[in-house]
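Notes from hallway chat w/ T.B., transcribed later so I don't forget. T.B. wanted the structure written out for a chain they're using in a teaching module, and asked if we could keep both sequence and structure tokens in one place. Agreed to drop them here.
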Amino acid sequence: MFTGIVAAVGRIETVSPLGDANAGVRLRVAAGGLDLSDVGIGDSIAIQGACMTVVTLEAGHFDVDVSRESLDKTVGLAQPGRVNLEKALRLADRLGGHLVSGHVDGLGEVVRFAPVGESHELRIRAPRELGRYLAYKGSVVVNGVSLTVNSVSDGADGCEFSINLIPHTVEVTTLNELAPAKRVNLEIDLIARYVERMLSASDGVAKPAI
């Protein structure tokens, strides 16, 4: 589990194929300011919002293997570049964002990214199937960053939602590289997922005694 509070911006330095075109890749990641002193082989680190397992570890660097399935369902992991990093949540940690699984639910497309006063407005079009999980003042993860939804509008081509980004968030994450037409990794709120399941369950299913 994660919180969606980016701990550091690192960089994917190399992308090495693990086999043929249908196989995954190994990423060598420079950790930037991420403290790796308490990280071991097999630990989880979120990269651009996608949970990955550390397979090798060196001073200031770590490697992860990314499956073809993950590459097909995410953006920002198939080429060198800056990435948002967060280590897995410990039970004693402060929950600054919201509960995040590190499993990307779908890809969104940036519609607008522009200054508004001292902040930035980020407007994203999400797939229709994710729209029902987005709510005014609810939570969403964009490229690994926990954010608050300011408005939601459903349309024939998807669900458009807006976010207000304070200067600090723009400065310390890779969201400052966004522009219209760029795609982003989205993870919907974990609680919304369970609420939908409870509401959609058949009445014929036995319910536990209280």
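Follow-up for T.B.: The domain at 8-87 is CATH 2.40.30.20 (Elongation Factor Tu (Ef-tu); domain 3). Might be a good example for the class.
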